[in-house]
Amino acid sequence: MESGQIDQSPDNDKPLSLRFVVLESYRDRNRNRLEGFYQFDEAMDQFGRAHFEDWGKSRAWPLLPFDRIDGSYLRYWAITGSRHEGYVILKNPIVDMPLDQLNSAMELFQQCRTTFRAQLLTKKIEPYTFGNDEVIRLSNRERLWENDQVWIFNTGCYRVRQKGNHRVCPVLFRKEDFDKWLSPSGKVPKQLTEKLADLIIGFLKSISENYRHKQQDLNKWLKKACERAGLKTSENEIEKKVWDRMPKELRKGRGQPRKSNLTFSYEKHTEALVEMLHSARNR
Questions:
Q1: Where are the alpha helices (DSSP H) in 86-125?
Q2: CA angle 15, 44, 239 (to 5 degrees)
Q3: Mean pLDDT score of the chain
Q4: Which of 74, 152, 156, 202, by CA, is between 20 and 30 Å from 166?
Q5: Tens digit of each residue's pLDDT (9 = 90 or more) over 128-161
Q6: What residues does each domain of the chain span?
């Protein structure tokens, strides 16, 4: 998908990624150098997926980041300027996008920005940037996450002035460190193995006669429970490793209401499933 292009297919249930258009050319030029690092938008995307259920579901998502200024929606589009005069952010007006989509995307982005910034201020994860020939750790976190938040949270870069010259530097995180920090267990998320999938199948078999549910809702619930247990998975993977291997008598008619009048209690069963998976993955 090209930068700024919107996927509006009606069956697209996969969350869209957050990518700042400002960083695209830098990303293309420095792919080898960026190996092992998340750029700021990639890190924020990982954080948002882990903490917000509706992350990436708005049609306006590929246009982020943008703001509403004097009644108009303006997208942060590019950085222009020079090392002698300084740099500014260019913004373009957004057209042909429903207001409800723009509002929902902007509201969720702002919620994530507030939560993400609060976590970054705890100093539990180190930000970096590239010098001429080396990776540099950024030490003044308060300035980064407080004073420069408009720049960082809309361009993924921060500004610095050295010896009379202005520079724009990308904010980076080491992937291994960031993944460990983001995971609730403090470890890099593990994959959903067939052994763990078998546990899920057994769990579903034990409760299958006591509820009615929609297939889509159950898949989303299983994905969320796996993530809480520190497992990296997707609804497609759950389909293959759980449902495709489920006994036929349980697969038949799934997604249809059961004869029982009981509805499936997600909250009640989540804790039991998460505890079971978390215990099993750490053995």
A1: 99-120
A2: 30
A3: 80
A4: 74
A5: 998 777 888 887 666 777 667 788 999 999 887 7
A6: 21-182, 190-281
